[in-house]
């Protein structure tokens, strides 16, 4: 065990090592791995992994939270209790991830090597949630929308006003006259969907 560590340290110090030269040429790619985090500790884990120069990723989405007569929109992790970490098993000091504050362990089949995420799955996650969380419904005043829930489901309406509390006022054409309705923002979708 000590001999392996000494060899790895020597390889890291030697800039002409095959692993280093392959990585510079782009032949040895860094792969994405899954790290299990402490309960509700995704933010702490990501901050500490970034501090150790690891690239980490925690996909988030906007979630409506109702509590004590208040409605808030918060960012919630798509996979609670897990974050993605990018590193190269052969050249990066990945075992330190298991000791990182906020991280329980790397997900693996055996303790010798963690199991990488499939490239196709990570590409799709990064494309969907890369820089910004999942986008909110993009409706503006005057847009035509379709109501998806409630007694007026499947009816077309026009957006009259928006408020910051997750409510939308729409105008619905009923019996030849426009009638105003207040709906929750998640009960409408753009009409072209």
Overview of this structure, please?
The structure is a single chain. The protein is α+β, with helices and mostly antiparallel strands and 193 residues long. It folds into two domains: 2-129, NusG, N-terminal domain (Alpha-Beta Plaits); 144-190, SH3 type barrels (Roll), CATH 2.30.30.30. The protein is 21% helix and 34% strand. It is built from four helices and eleven strands. The chain has helices at 2-13, 18-25, 42-51, 119-129; strands at residues 31-37, 55-57, 60-67, 70-77, 82-87, 103-106, 144-147, 156-162, 167-174, 177-184, 188-190. It has a five-stranded antiparallel beta sheet with strand order 10-9-8-7-11, with no helix packed on it. The chain has a four-stranded antiparallel beta sheet with strand order 2-5-1-6, with helices on one face. β8 (156-162) and β9 (167-174) form a beta hairpin. The longest helix is centred in the first third of the chain and has 12 residues, at 2-13. The radius of gyration is 24 Å and the shape is elongated. 14% of the residues are buried.
